[in-house]
Amino acid sequence: MKRTPANTKVAPSRANAQLAYVEVGSSELTRDINRDIVLEYVRAMQPISRVDVARASGLQPSTVSSIVERLLEERWIRESSMVKTARGRRPTLLSLNDDMVFLVADIRPNQAIAAVVDLSGRFLERQIVPVCAHPETTIQSIASVMRAFQARHTDKTFQGVGVSVPGRVDLSTDEMVFAPNLQWQAFPMRARLHALLGLEVQLENDATASLLAELWFGRIDGVRNAVLVTVSEGIGAAILADGRLIAGRDGLAGEFGHISIDPDGPECGCGGKGCWEVFASTTAALRTYRELQPSGAAVSFVQLIALAMDEDPSARAALTQQARAIGQGLHLLNAIMSPDLILLAGDVSLFYDVYRDVIEAECRAGAMDGVGPRFVSVGDGDMSRLRGAAAVVLQRHSGYYRAAHMRADKRSPTTSFAR
Ligand SMILES: [Zn+2]
After folding, report:
1. Among the CATH numbers 1.10.260.40, 3.60.110.10, 3.30.420.40, 3.30.9.100, which is that of 220-377?
2. How far apart are the first and last CA of the chain?
3. Which of 75, 103, 331, 332 lies deepest, with the highest CB count within 10 Å?
4. pTM here?
């Protein structure tokens, strides 16, 4: 069965041609977009002939041919040898070049995972790296693991480095800003990794990385309005609206987790009080459990899930309270964005069966259309963020990156956001 590429929802031959997160602005941009389209069709329908790319995309065969030549030269794609059959010569087929790989890392408050991933989203290697309070030490450990990967895969071409971070990334500096759960003060992570590895480095917010992974390698083909919410130690969100990823001013869009829902509530890592994440994160569930079991031993989130499965009443109460808070927040988010789809990612999605009924009922309660959005649990935790980190590097060559950076370039220096 043929798949439609994730970010080419509508064939460009149609009158209302629109690409996800691409704004058509100039002939130069159009040429780049055509390149994205060809790469997308090869990725989604490989192995595929030039003729079929032209047919599926609606692009002129001559346009497809010249773009394919460029992609072959740049080694993004490769062609199989010509096959002779009884009915004559069959055209050569194009596939992504699996020898082209990326170094990726997913940095979280307590640990990082470094990995090697190819253009199709397959992992060649993964390794856990400790995260400590000193960003320089942590970044050096990640870089040394990545150098070891490179030394073990000398047959591969390392195209770049993608990093998923638990914070927002400033569009003008490409550095991490606002990471309340990772108390690293201003640290030039991208510049340091670039200096240590000698490769281009892209950082991306973890929720946006997970949503990119779904767009590039995932299950949301044809969806133009979606919100991905990660629920782990904190809450993050990424927004796909009318087919575009929304970055917002300074890349800070999507911080639903830090909307205060109770000004008298507990303190949050962002400096505020009673933020949604203070009630809906896994940290919140653990806090509730401690309040219900003040003399009990400290438990991890996974142990809390196990206790709930063993019918421990305090664990069940803590998770139910968290699920209710998640659903209530999603209800507000649904009222604002009206997405077709809410994707749940992060630690909660690993145990979504425990949460599903309460979250979906709370979100749908009083939904304006009486139905509410569809829910999908991403359910593969760090794998999704690591794939997302690879998609971030892929996107560097595509519309999302260009659109976001055109906006950043256009911004006048006097409008920078005061932090
Ligand atoms: Zn907060």
Report:
1. 3.30.420.40
2. 50
3. 103
4. 0.77
